[in-house]
Structures are given as C-alpha cells and as structure tokens.
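--- STAGE predict ---
source: upstream dedup step, 1 unique chain passed
mode: sequence only
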Amino acid sequence: MAGMEHARTPGLPFMKMHGLGNDFVIIDLRHGVETPDAATIAAIADRNFGVGFDQLATIDHDEAADARLVFFNNDGSRSAACGNATRCIARFLMEGSGKNHLQLRTDHAVLLAEDAGGGLTRVNMGAPVLDWKSIPLAEDIDIDHLPIAGDPVATGMGNPHMTFFVEDVESVDLDRCGAEHEHHPLYPERTNVEFVQILSSEEIKLRIWERGTGPTLASGSCSCAAAVAAARRGLTGRKVTVNVPGGQLQIDWREDGVWMTGPTAHVFDGVWRG
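--- STAGE serialize ---
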C-alpha cells in the first residue's frame, strides 16, 4: 500500500559468475554470512524460481592458504572439487588483493592459481587420482577399461569421473546416458560422466553430465578428467585443447598436476531473499 514502510530482511549476498557458461553462485563468508542449508541451496539453484547455477561455492578465511573454498551441487550435495568455480574465485580474489598467485584450500587439496595473462586464469587441479579406492570405485578393477558397455575410463579429480570415447559426441543421448551412468553401482558416490570425441592428438571435443547437476556447458574437473583419460589411452598427448559447448579450455597434465587455463566472468551481484 502506498505510504507504508515495509521492513526488508538483510538477505544473503551473493555473486553470479561463470566459466564458459558453467555458472556459479558464490557466497563470501568472510563478511559474516553463513553457509545456506541444503534446502536453501536447492531453492537458489532453481532456474525458474531462484537464481540458477551449476554449482554453489563459498569463500572463507584459512589460516595457511589465501582462502578456503567449499563447493555444492545444485541438489544441495557437497562436492570436493569444481575447477571452473575455482578459476572464477581466483580471478575475483586476485583482482581484490593485487596478487598474481594464490593458494586455495578445497576439500580435495590446496590448489595453486595464477594469472595466465590476457584475462585468463590458470589453476593446478592437482594430480589425478588413479587408485580405485580413492576415486572411489566399489571394487578393485582395471580403471582404464571399466566392465561397462562403451569401455569407459575411471579417473578421480577430487570427484569421480567416467569417461567414454565416441566417434561423434553430438550423437550421444546425453540426458539418458548421463543419468543412467551417474548412478552406476561401480560408483558408490555417483559420478560425473564425460563423452569425448578425439579431434587430433592435441584437441578433443567434450559433452558433460555433472553429478547432481546434469548437462552443463563446461566443467573444469570433467575437462581435466577427460584429458587425463585420453592421454592414458594414448589417444592424445598430455597437453590438449578441450572444446566444450561453452568454449575452450587448455589442459596441461604436468608432473606437478593437471593445469587448467581459461576465461572467467563476474556477471552480477545480488541478494537472495527467498
């Protein structure tokens, strides 16, 4: 009613960011707000009634690293790794601090991030996990040739992955195949699923089904896992360009870990009042 004052709740401040269309809600806990519960995360994730995101991430203080990051899928479940969100947050923190190099603690590891020049951000996602127990899988099995139709590869990048190599990624029924394999009994914690087309020894094309999210335009950890799997199969070298629906990432599997380079975008800031 005109003339009436309406009290406004403080709400939950957030940032909306993306890396190649892989989009995130970022909440900075360093300013006194608290991590939302799973129901609130799922509500924020709704693209019709909320904000919409592929993953949600929080930033907090850390005694030894530049910041501590925690990641959540859009169903409210927690994830130990999210490469593109790490790059987005690294860019935000570097711009705020003036630093060109950062150490970011995640549930998986302390990750190194750096300014790669030209507006690009590079993150070391750490060494790939190639032990069946740590991926994790349900049983001791050949991770390079899983006993699943399509002969996929298993890899861990702080989260589990199943990678298929196909002649044409566009012909894959991603909604059906991704959902089916996410819940495969070999993966007790579910899995991300990638479908890879080899373009050359230095370039691949990728379609992605993310655990707890579904199809995404890009994914850092999935791009890393796909590149590692292709190199292990001898299909590419250890440095490749990964084409995802949202653009390109450069993946370089070095002795000190899997480095990922690509663009980021800080789209807008907002306040959740749901």
